[in-house]
Design goal:
This protein has 164 residues and is mostly helical. Helix content is 70%, strand content 0%. Among the domains are: 33-97, Helicase, Ruva Protein, domain 3, CATH 1.10.8.640; 101-128. The chain has six helices and no strands. Helix 2 (35-43) crosses helix 3. The model has no long low-confidence stretch (mean pLDDT 82).
């Protein structure tokens, strides 16, 4: 195994471990266990129609209380979270949700920065590999003479400075 491959092995293992952790964390079901917790979780996703940048969960306005009561009623009936959020969105418009859905132009807004980051990292990896693959510069006798002359000139300057 070449030294270059050995140096990439720990990084490759780290990348695989990171992907596994992200997948396990994303697939794990950590949803609310009771109806009250579920109502609170849904209320945290809905914007208060009368407030600025506040969720229905955090607001005490009459409109927020009415939305929270409607969400609780729909949870008790057995509707899914998607159905409840869909109802609220159809009633108040897409701006009512604090987290926009990932479809249409929103998907582009959410996905474009990730794609740029991945492509940028890939470009850097390719550039570093290309720079590393270049042959070492061959030093000629003319180069050696130039360096020796520069060193002599430097020694002469140092010697003159000490005599002053």
């Amino acid at each position: 195994m070449t030294p270059v491959r050995r140096s990439w092995l720990p990084w490759g293992l780290l990348a695989v471990a990171l992907v596994v952790v992200v997948l396990v964390g994303g697939l794990r079901s950590g949803g609310p266990s009771s109806n009250a917790e579920r109502v609170d979780a849904l209320a945290k996703q809905v914007r208060c129609p009368a407030c600025r940048s506040q969720s229905v969960f955090d607001s005490d306005t009459p409109s927020s209380r009415a939305i929270k009561e409607e969400v609780a009623r729909r949870v008790e009936v057995g509707q899914t979270d998607a159905e409840i959020l869909g109802y609220v969105e159809s009633r108040f418009g897409s701006e009512i949700l604090l987290s926009p859905t990932a479809d249409g132009i929103n998907a582009l807004v959410w996905g474009l920065p990730v794609a740029v980051l991945v492509l940028g990292a890939g470009g850097l990896v390719l550039a570093f590999r290309r720079w590393q693959a270049n042959e070492a510069t061959i030093v000629t006798d003319a180069d050696r003479r130039l360096v020796a002359a520069a060193l002599r000139a430097e020694d002469d300057d140092v010697g003159e400075g000490a005599g002053r």
